[in-house]
Amino acid sequence: MAVVATLQVGTLSALLYKPVDRVTRSTLVLHDLLKHTPCSHHDHPLLQDALCISQSFLSSINEEITPRRQPAAARKGENRQLVKDSYVVELVEGARKLRHIFLFTDMLLCAKLKKQTAGKTPQYDSKWYIPLSDLTFQAGEESDTPPIPQVPDEEIDSMKAKISHIRAELQREKGTSKGVKAMERMKKKLSEQESLLLLSCPNMPLRIHNRNGKSYMFLISSDYERTDWKDIIREQQKKCFKSVSLSSLELQMLTSSCVKMQNIHHIPLTVNREDSESPGLYGSLNVIVHSASGLKQSLNLYCALEVDSFGYFTNKAKTRVYRYTTEPNWNEEFEIELEGSQFLRLLCYEKSYNRNKLNKEDGESTDRIMAKGQIKLDPQTLQGKDWQRTVIAMNGIEVKISVKFTSRELSPKRRSSPKETGVFGVRISAVTKRERSKVPYIVRQCLEEIERRGLEEVGIYRVSGVATDIQTLKAAFDANNTDVSVMMGEMDVNAIAGTLKLYFRELPEPLFTDELYSNFAGGIALSDSVAKESCMLNLLLSLPEPNLLTFLFLLDHLKRVAEKESINKMSLHNLATVFGPTLLRPSEKDSKIPTNPTQPISMGDSWSLEVMAQVQVLLYFLQLETIPTPDSKRQSILFSTEV
């Protein structure tokens, strides 16, 4: 009975916090909206009224719950208020630690959430604090910069695969006779894996220094979030002129009060989401970045796009730099893959061309963020609709964009082209026969151009190319345009990479063929390394000759790209992630992906598991030191009939 009572208390406590959580989230959104809405806009007074109502409600709640909040938070006569809080990763002596940081009106507090016992109030352990008057983002001359330990991509993918598997299991067990305890065990496993992923993924440094010489480093997943923290700290520093020093008792009282004052009550895991909340979107999002207005001076401006997946944000695309203008008109289209995504973020940067000068604060990019904003990807608004135009207003700058979402079950399928003379959508054997070549001309041309000027391009193959440029090249190759090589020389290298990916994606049958797809998926799952190598090489050399020679040609190129990883940031694993689904994704009739739109989580996670297998197959061949050529097939002892 005691255990049941404890669980009920914990559940009741969580339920009581949910309305407050929702109002708090709304208040944060209102803050952002007001920040980016001009005072002259007709919505500005309405937003102010809504914010006042929300803040009044939260203040009354805090007064009722914590009548002694002020004495705990500050000395008499002081007015310390919580401005912002968030869960972040701190780098401590080379190890990643999950922290909850609290920005107050006069100080920044870093705390650790203690392990919770069911039904008990969460507790924090204070790690350090810095008065805002002593906080700086610029390191002292003697300050050293510790290296950031990178978690291997293979481990990250393994975590994602486990998360997808557990999510799929939970989805299947909902509504069955399985006991509550069994479901709770699965949720606990999911929470552990998601927490590990959130701890492992962020790699963008946010360095904070105390004027007395002590330095700290947080790892953030996106430039948007990092800039947000810097901006709000700097804004608060303008109002704070007095230093503060807390005794151990005062620090303990302040840390204890954080439990009731915090805005973020849970680590941002999907397991903590309410059932009524959207699981996010799975599919592709086409985004056209049209233009920007409101600039007060001419700048070299470009935009970057970020989306969230598995609880953290990553950069997905960027426009070209529009040189020295107050009204840039990019009109560039990008296709972004979504995996449980809920938000699209846009950042406007001023490009710096001084490569010898590093940013004093983070030691990396000198490009300056001029404005940033985000829109929520609402499934109800985006599902089954055409292009939707919207304006993102931020810091007086307005950026016009259009978005169109295509769910995975409605995404374009592999199909044959009705034109026999083209190359896109035409069987690779037909193209090589017509051209009297072993490798299609389009593959050779694209790879040669990328090797000529794209091997050192940061994010080559990962960063999206402009959709209109890709379509222009596609039409030129399909028409057998003799000037295509000249056109490629004038195109952005990411557009050429995008054209190559599109060619493989639109093949009527994948390069690894529909017939052998399940065999490759089974072979990569073998645990015995000798049996796996024999099986995988046997299967590879069973491909039709045009497919095999084209793959080997591409494989050599991808290895050369990875040799420049220190410059282009594209490891073998990153390349496998990009090309695995492109080369292996089977035709619709052979796909194992469910198409039931009423189960978005299950559909998304099943897709994720299948994609992971496709990535692993390509990665296996990329990591093999040597692959026997077709001519040596009969001589190799690896190619016996026994597997």
From TrEMBL:
Please report the stretch or stretches of sequence annotated as the C2 domain. 265-392
Q: Which organism is it from?
A: Albula glossodonta
UniProtKB keywords: Cell projection, GTPase activation, Guanine-nucleotide releasing factor, Synapse
Q: Which domain of life is it from?
A: Eukaryota
Which residues does the UniProt record annotate as the domain Rho-GAP?
426-620
Q: Where is the PH domain?
A: 81-238
Start and end of every DH domain? Answer: 12-64
Which PROSITE patterns does the entry link to? Answer: C2, DH_1, DH_2, PH_DOMAIN, RHOGAP
Task: From the Swiss-Prot or TrEMBL record, state where the protein is found.
Answer: Cell projection, Axon; Cell projection, Dendritic spine
**Pfam families per record:** C2 (PF00168), PH_19 (PF19057), RhoGAP (PF00620), RhoGEF (PF00621)
Keyword Acetylation assigned: no
Any one biological process term the GO annotation gives: intracellular signal transduction
Q: Which GO terms describe its molecular function?
A: GTPase activator activity; guanyl-nucleotide exchange factor activity
Q: Does the keyword Kinase apply?
A: no
Q: Name the Gene3D superfamilies on file.
A: C2 domain, Dbl homology (DH) domain, Pleckstrin-homology domain (PH domain)/Phosphotyrosine-binding domain (PTB), Rho GTPase activation protein
What's the protein called, per UniProt? Breakpoint cluster region protein
Annotated Gene Ontology cellular component terms: axon; dendritic spine; membrane
Q: Supply the source organism's classification.
A: Eukaryota, Metazoa, Chordata, Craniata, Vertebrata
